[in-house]
Amino acid sequence: MSLLTLTLLFLAAAVGGGLNSVAGGGSFIAFPALLFAGVAPVAANATNTVALWPASLASAVAYRREVPGSRKVLVTLSIASLIGGTAGALLLLHTSESAFVQLIPWLLLVATSLFTFGKRMTARFAGKSDDASPRALALVAVAQSVIALYGGYFGGGMGILMLASLALIGMTDIHAMNALKTILGALINGAAVVLFVLAHAVEWRPGVVMVAGGILGGYAGASLARKVDPKKVRVFVIVVAWAMTVYFFAKTYSGILVSPANP
Q1: Number of independent structural domains in the chain
Q2: How far apart are CA 40 and CA 63, in angstroms?
């Protein structure tokens, strides 16, 4: 892999980390960049998760004071996140390259749709229930396990799903919801990272470069978050995400696959 390619991957991860700090959607930049660089699809997904995880972990630490006071909710959903994230990562590792290539455009379509229309989804659910009973928590824990499975497998848009799920147990404070979502996301990706590393699924040469880029971008993004209009950043991410989705549909179903054999 050339120095120019590694430089571009560093920049892609920096942009991705910055976007995640401001408006989310960093994977729409980092994951396609790895595919364009010739990394095999499953390895690209694993490497992308590893590259952006340190930034999400840093965000989780920054949000620790905003976490809602119910330890029962935090512990229950954390366990569900770890179980689901582990299952999703294992599913990815047992998915063939050819099958995952066929899934990429559909996964991007789901993630892009969630990112684009997710606010309407959460607004529809918000405030409709103030029931935090054991039954309600159990149902949300099951939902969180499914969301975490998706997150461990691919992950794009899982934050929107978590916000909608948290609204169903009566959470209305967006700061507390974002804090819990960030911590649960870090746990999901953390479980996946451990498995990806143990399974030797990560391409470490671009991975290390992208970890550095993601950390830099996440730090810079956090500093700029108060100065940049998140709505404008969100529009930019949506445009890029839909462009990537259309591109991968066209490439996949025209028989021209993005892979090491067809960079």
Answers
A1: 1
A2: 34
- Name the E strands within the chain: none
CB-CB neighbours of 181 under 10 Å: 23
Which residue shows structure tokens 């994230």?
85
Cα 126 from chain centroid? 22
Q: What range defines the domain where residue 205 resides?
A: 3-253
pTM comes to 0.77
168 in a domain, yes or no? Answer: yes
Residue 236 lies in a domain: yes
pLDDT average per 10 residues of sequence, the chain (263 residues): 92 85 76 92 93 81 69 89 96 91 88 76 51 73 92 82 76 75 90 95 93 85 67 79 87 60 37
Q: Cα–Cα distance between 236 and 16 in angstroms, integer? A: 12
In degrees rounded to 5, what are phi and psi of residue 100?
A: -65, -35
State the CB neighbour count (10 A cutoff) for residue 184.
Answer: 28
The one-letter amino acid code at 141 reads A
CB neighbours of residue 100 within 10 Å: 19
The reply to whether 83 falls in a domain is yes
Which tokens hold the place of 129? 């229930």
